Each structure stands twice: as C-alpha cells, then as structure tokens.
Amino acid sequence: MKITQLYVDRDVLDLPAAKAICTRLDIPFQIVHDPKEVYDPVARSESPVDTGKATLWLTRNKGKFVRPCPGTEQYTCCDYTILHIGTFCTMDCSYCILQSYFHPPVLQYFVNHADMEQSLDEVFARRQLMRIGTGEFTDSLIWETLYPYAASLIRKFAGQSSTVLELKTKTVNIDHLLGMAHNRKTILSWSLNTETIIKTDERHTAGLNARFKAAAKSVAAGYPVAFHFDPMVIYQGCENDYRDVITRLFTIIPPDRIVWISLGTFRFKADLKPVIEKRFDASTIVYGEFIKGLDGKMRYFKPLRISFYRMIIAHIRSIAPDVMVYFCMEDDEVWYQSFGFTPKEKGGLPFMLDSSAERHCGLTNQELTV
Amino acid sequence: MQFFSETIELGRVDLNDTTYQISTQQSVEDLIASIGQVGLLSLPLLRSVEAGRYIVISGFRRITACRELGWDRIEARIVEGTAGDLECCRLAIADNACNRALNTIEQSNAITKLSAFFDDDRILSHEAQKIGLHVNPDLTKKLKKLTMVYPELFGPIISGVLSLTIALELGNFDRDSALIFLHVFETLKPTLNHQKEMLTMAREIALAAHVPILQLIREVLGAVIIDDPGLERHQKIQKIREQFQRMRYPEMVRFEKNFQDRLQRLKLPEAIRLIPPANFESDRFNISFTFQNISQFLSGNEFLGGLADVSDFKKILDKDIEDNPTIC
To answer: % helix / strand / coil in chain B, to the nearest 5?
Structure first.
C-alpha cells in the first residue's frame, strides 16, 4: 500500500534512517510534537485500519527493543524473543491481529537504531542461546525497499555466536541480502498458506511461488530458512491444498536446510471478527467451527485441530521425517495426539528449537573465536 | 422564531408534501370525534411556501380530521417567512416529541430528517436531544439505518414484535428471506437471543457455503413445519435452532452426540456425574460423586475403579476423533 501521510518526531529528524526515508518517500511530512497529532486523525477516519496502513510515523522506540514474546500459560510457548523494530504492516492480511491490537493502528518505524544496537550488544554479552525475531509486531522486511536496515542486523548477528535472528516475511525483499556474510546467524523465514487463502485473505503479499523462489535463493546463498504455516485455515478442500503447498515446498527447499516449521491453526480475539467481516468481503475464515479457548481467543474445536494437524504432520513426515516441526500455542494434549509426544518429553519446546538452531546455525554459548 | 395565528382555507394546505411528517399514525377517527365535540384546541403548525399555499410542519392528522368533518377553514399557526428548513424541521420534531412518546419508526423519521443538516452522529444526537428526542449517538446511527429496512417490517417494529436490532439485521437480508424470518418470529415469538442466534447462524452458514440465504432458510424451515399443530411453540423453536446448529457446527454437534451416546453406555449411577471440559478444550474432566454413607461410598468407588477398563470411558478421555473421520 502507498504511504500517503508521513509523520516524523522532532527529535529523530537528524537520525540517518529518518533522513533517508523522508528523502526516499519524497512526500511532505509533518513534524510531531505530541503522539495525538498522529493518532487522532487515524482514529477519527472512516476506516482506521486502512488509514493506519497509509500512515507512516518515524519515531523512537521509547520502550524495550528486546522483549519476550507474549505467550499464555494455557498453551505451550516457544520462549521466543522479539526485536521490536516497528509496528503494523503495509500488507493486508484478514487474520492479522494487529488490526485490532493497536488503538489505533499506525505504521511506526523506530529509527533510533543506535539504541537498538546497544540493546543487542547487551543481549550478545550474556552469551545465552536465544532466538530473536523482528516479525511479531510487523513484517520483518516491508521497509527494505525504503531503508535496507536488515543488512545491518544480519552483519551484527554474524559477529556473535549465541543468538540467531529470524527475519519473518511475506515479501520477497531479499535480493540485496544474498551476498552478505551472514555466518548462518540469520534465518530467513516465510509464512506460507494455500493459494486459496493467499488470494482471499492476504492482500498485497508476495505470491506463493515468489515466496518459494525467494526461499530457494536464500538457501543457495547459504542462509538457514524456516517456514510458518500460521494461521492454517480449515475450509472445504483445505487438506489437499495444504498437502500441495507442503509438497511444493520440499521440491524446492532441501529439508536439511530448514531450521524449523511452525504450525498453528487460525485463532483470533473475538473483536477481530467484525473487522474481518467489514474489510474482507471474500473471506469466510471466521465462519469455521470455533470455540473460546482457554486464553480467551477463538480457536477451532480441539478434535478438529487434532485431526487436521495429524494429516499435516503425516504429510510432512512422509517427505521430511527429520525436519523440526512444532506447534505455536497448543497444549500437551494436542502435541501428544498429533505428534505422539509432548514437548516435556524432549526437554521442552524452547530446548527443541534451540537445539535445531544450534545444529543449523552453528549456535553456541561459547565466545566466538575470530 | 415568530408565529402568527391565521384563519386559512383548508384547500390551500398541501397534505401531499410530507417534508416534515414524523407521525406514522394514519387513522383519524379518534380525532374526528374529539375535534367534532370540542373543536380544534391545538393549532396545526404550517409553513407558507408560496402565495396562498401551505405545507404542514406539524398537524397532518388534525388537518385530515378537519377535512373529514367537512370544515372549509381552520385557524392555524403560521411560521414566519424567514424561518429556514432546519428551524422548521426542529419545530416538527419538537412539536411531536414533546406531546407524546414517539415510536421507533417515528424516531427514525425524525432523526433521518434532522440528519440532512448534521453529518456527525454525535452532533446529530446532541441536536436531537435539545428538541426532546432522547437518543445517544449509537441509537442515532441505528435509527438512520432503519430507513433502509423493508416497509413490511415497520408494523412489527411499531407493535414491538420486532426489536430495532433484529429489524436492522433483517434489513441486511434479501427481502424474501427477511419476510420468512419475520413470519417465524411473529408466529413462534422466540426470545431476542434466539432470534439473533438464528439470524447469525443463517448468515454465516450461507456465507461459508456460498449459497443464497433464501435457499438455506427454506432448507432449514422445510424440516420444521412452522404451523404444525402437533408441535408446541418451544419445540418448533428448538428444532429450528438444532437444525441451524447442525449446519453451522457439524463436527461439534456430531462430537457432542457421540459423547452423549458414550456417556449413556457407561450407565453411570445417579450419584456419579462425568463432566467434560467446556467445549472439550481443556484436558481436565471432572467426576462428581455424591454419597451419604460408607456403603454408598464403597459401591461408588467400586464402580469408578471399573471405569478404567471400559472402552467408551477411554474414548471419552481421549476425545476420540475416530468418529470425525473427515474435516474437509
């Protein structure tokens, strides 16, 4: 989507990222003295989500750059760590929680990169195995065409050995990253879905083939890669569609280059339903057989989830028996019924993922010898 | 604003111009009797639009009654020529709202007329309140939408058979479907929650299956004879709800039925109850065991011990999905 409204905080005007983005966008910008100057027009607009997607605010992250992923007690969390580079997204997915997560939603890009790098130095100094990603509150690579900062992050992570960076995206903005010395400390990962869902529910995202091609180029450039089937949507014909995506994935990407594949069926807070109904005419994803989960979010009826996961896992295992597959936010019962074991039996989900990162990315909590 | 009283010829009043009409009531028999007996106590309010022609701001029924009585002339209050459209609209609403409680359609008429002058619903509701129409911004928005619903729904709305919320929901359906639901609601009088449930399910099933809603409703209601004298009203409502539920949540309904069948086969004593987790989401089942003495305790205990070997019990705990072989 096109940025039509640009705001810049007064105190970041001279920062390199702010200067570069203003020059590149080449549209008039408004200097911000008070956040209300940004939020109020968006909140008052007829469709705050659409307005928010066209409104970019270059600002400073005044909170923590590095923070734990908000999980819930009721379902098994992977202990992921978020690198908070910005908020919201220029792409437009019906199921995106960010539509109702921020009040109102605005594209924020945090330009105080020196502070972010200092936070990362502190993390690296701990020499603790960690998985850090930028794709929780935004897509990791949407701003690369405006300001290719991912390269700096990749360079920074390449210089240490205990932490891996995951850049999660639905774009294909990776060509400028292919020649870099990444030292396998960056995982390039893609969210995948069926052609049907991409067509009806993922506006302005790269097509499935394009994502596969970008992943293949990343593998050729030596990057570890990962894939996220999340959210998976249960609809008429979905079994064949997801099997097809999985088959195509493994014809292009060697399983041993995949650090992990996550699975998660569609879940949503109840207040997202009217947003989806209003904004996505062709989408029927909210009309599945949902119940209120233990965390208050709507989830598919558990026996349905288990049935579906069993089918997906069986298909993955038939092609790639050793690839690390895990659930995002499911409980022991679903794990056991679908995989035949619970994470606890394997040392816990964080340990399972750390181990896979160790193997694929050469992670160690020892000091890097240069 | 200035008014002056004037005796005018009734033939000069244009009753076809309903620019300011708020009232939905058409019948004038009560007024004919009253005016015939004691005369015209409250003078109609008119606006002079051109030389010798008037339109009605307030008092449509009074003027009609006077004509029915065969009067040629009446005394009326005339708004002075400088009054604007907004002022006249305010007068029409205030004169109606301050003399009686307006029904929902009349409120909608009033708000819709006033909305021609105010875009923002908050300002509109504030302006309405100043002239005796007690509506908040949320209700204001709904009342504006009410003008879009099918005219056949107006009567049931006024009589209270249809709530404003349900009427607006029906306004989103095609006309035939809306009228079928209206018939069901008028005939069976389900609770507001049940009405909402039926409409939501019908809409969502139709959208998910990409079938016309009318086709779906006929399918559901075809299985439940609305006018079947052999069924009580609440039984018909229950059958309709079950039919919608089977279509909206087929796997959940099937799973619940399998659970109930298995529960039956366990033949639990009256003192023992097996309570599954809500929506079968948690992995925690509960057993409630009531006893009054040692003998009952031992007997119940023995029964519970034996459950571990019963296949139906194991399948319940496993939330066995074998009964749900296909999901897509």
So the answer is: 55, 10, 35
